[in-house]
Amino acid sequence: MKFVVKNVTRSKGRVGNILDLNKRPDVVLPTPLCLLNTRKGCVPHLTYDVLHKMVLNRQHSLPLCLPLTTLANSRTAIKAYGKGIASFIGFEDQVIYLSIQDPAEAIPQGYNDKAGISLWPKTGRWQLDVQHFMEMVESFQPDMAQVLCDSDTNKDSTPKRIRKSLDRSLHYLDLCLVHHAKSENVRERTALFATVEGGYDKASRKHSAKQTALRPVDGFVIEGFHNNGPEAENINPDDIKELVSEVVEHLPADKPRVLPGVYRPDVVLAAVQQGIDIFDTSYPYVVTERGGALVFKYSFRGAENSASSRGGDGEGSKTFEWNMKDTRYAADFTPIVEGCECYTCLKHTRAYVNHLLMTGEMLAEVLLMIHNLHHYLQFFSAIRDALTSDMLDQLKDVVLNSS
Q1: How far lies 277's CA from each of 27, 131, 332, in Å?
Q2: Domain span at residue 332?
Q3: Which of 92, 198, 238, 348 is the most exposed place for a label (fewest CB within 10 A)?
Q4: Which helix or strand (DSSP H or E) is residue 241 part of?
Q5: Is 302 found in the same domain as 174?
Q6: What does the pLDDT look like over 236-285, one tens digit per residue?
Q7: Cis omega before residue 256 (within 30°)?
Q8: Rounded-to-10 torsion of CA 377, 383, 384, 385
Q9: Are strands 33-37 and 14-19 parallel, antiparallel or unpaired?
Q10: What is the pTM assigned to this prediction?
Q11: 210 and 347 both lie in a single domain
Q12: Phi, psi at 21, each rounded to 5°
């Protein structure tokens, strides 16, 4: 796998391409990139056909993020199948990124130890060690995989917990690299992404970044700011700005950097300005789960892309979504976002979505997921456009003043 940086802006944001993936030499992934988050190999609320017709028809090379925690119970079947996870779930044409945890799902704290980390599938806690992890990577055959790590830290973590997280992650990484070197199948198929830890301690972040950068990996994941799930929405970009900058300063420029989590658009933009390349769609999923619709503006070249002034939540700056359960939408026969080209906005109204939510119809989440994914992925297209034109500050002004 190669990562080519095409342009670095004045704000330190960068636009580039991931290419020469071992199994897919013809695929080029533009960055900043948004991974399509899945559960058990499916995008929540969307069938295979709906996903292809409503989402992937616009972005064919969009990679799928498959969390191990949602696939652990199927490991035996996938291994016996013998053709890899992409074929197993019917997405042979998609690039597969294997993550450890589901960024949209909160992780119970305090269950990792020297023997391995804890995954939490529906059947309960399951401990994953290096041997089993590498066996799963070999049988799943992903294009990219996050290496086993201990990311159980957050803003309240003690120095002792941070040290354990850092030391264990480096230890797991070294063991995984030994397995990787011995297995020709994994070495030829899968690019490995190492995880940088350190909680909210600047010195620990620096140490983790410097040590991880010495290892022969293809990319880096920056974790440990939160325990996943909606908790990540509460992060203030200023709280992690210096920490992310410290990490990025000590990572090689020719390898991509991943920041997984349920991050609001303002956090994404701040991270892009610090040189982060890859995010995921756990945010639009969480918004969908609570009956929300993404409405923030992202057009910075004068084109119309704004939610109608009718029906807004009236919260001023940083109103990124509307609560479609609100009774104010019951008789509003306009699209969720005027000018939006997603299926939901072209075919249905705010009133209809509100009706579906209030009557408990599953179609409500389907329509909201279609819109929210479209909106969020178009936002990333705007980010790439802004970086190419060195206009990220203008995009940031538009997004932060959405209402």
Answers
A1: 17, 30, 38
A2: 291-400
A3: 238
A4: helix 237-249
A5: no
A6: 999 999 999 999 999 999 999 999 999 999 999 999 999 999 999 999 99
A7: no
A8: 110
A9: unpaired
A10: 0.93
A11: no
A12: -60, 140
Do 57 and 69 share a domain, yes or no?
yes
For Cα atoms 93, 101, 363, give the angle at the middle one, nearest 5 degrees: 65
CA distances from 86 to 33, 49, 134, 139 (A): 20, 16, 17, 11
Helices (H), 323-362: 343-347, 350-358
Residue 251: φ, ψ to 5°: -105, 145
Place of tokens 């830890």: 197
91 residue type, one letter? F
Structure tokens at 367: 């329509």
d(CA 336, CA 324): 9
Angstrom distances, CA of residue 384 to CA of 8, 34, 79, 94, 390: 11, 11, 38, 21, 10
Of 287, 321, 355, which residue is a domain's last?
A: 287
Laid out side by side, the sheet with 14-19 consists of 2-8, 14-19, 29-31
**Band (12; pLDDT cuts 50, 70, 90):** confident
Q: Which two tokens stand for residue 202?
A: 């600047």
| Half-sphere exposure in the Cβ direction for 166 (13 Å, CA) | 23
